[in-house]
Design a protein that fits this description.
Length: 155
């Protein structure tokens, strides 16, 4: 059985050895990593950014599942757990960006109910810094959103 839970400091080294925590920037209140575990083995993660996002919504970022565990429902479990977390924090919607070329991820997000946001595609090009190391990117991102909660007065 797969368990999804928030990354904590005691498990960080184990997760960091197994998975690429590209968005990890210390233990800040502005973000949360959720990790999928199969027993004692981390097999995937999703980062939730609470602020400073492109659409000013909580944003699911850096979704990653080990290649040998893909197409087994792990991504769905991670996305659903992130959506529940976003909703539990009182947010009605969440967003994510996905590479226009990543058809597998786009299919997953569409199957989960994400729809195109009313913003244009965004070309990302140049060198960015990920956990202190330079990384070259040349990609076009699509932004998707989904309703994940209801306002208390509508519930």
């Amino acid at each position: 059985m797969i368990d999804v839970r928030e990354l904590d400091e005691q498990e960080f080294a184990c997760v960091d050895d197994a998975l690429p925590l590209h968005r990890f920037d210390g233990w800040t209140a502005g973000s949360t990593y959720l990790v999928a575990w199969d027993g004692s083995a981390p097999i995937g993660h999703v980062h939730v950014a609470w602020e400073g996002t492109e659409l000013e919504l909580p944003e699911l970022q850096d979704m990653y599942v080990l290649p040998e565990r893909r197409s087994q429902g792990v991504g769905t479990l991670l996305a659903r757990a992130a959506e529940r977390l976003v909703s539990s924090q009182g947010h009605e919607r969440c967003s994510l960006s996905v590479s226009e070329a990543n058809t597998d991820a786009r299919r997953l997000y569409e199957r989960l109910g994400y729809t195109r946001a009313s913003v244009p595609r965004k070309r990302v090009r140049g060198t960015i810094t990920i956990r202190g190391a330079p990384f070259d990117v040349d990609d076009t991102l699509l932004y998707l959103t989904k309703r994940v909660g209801r306002r208390p007065e509508l519930a």
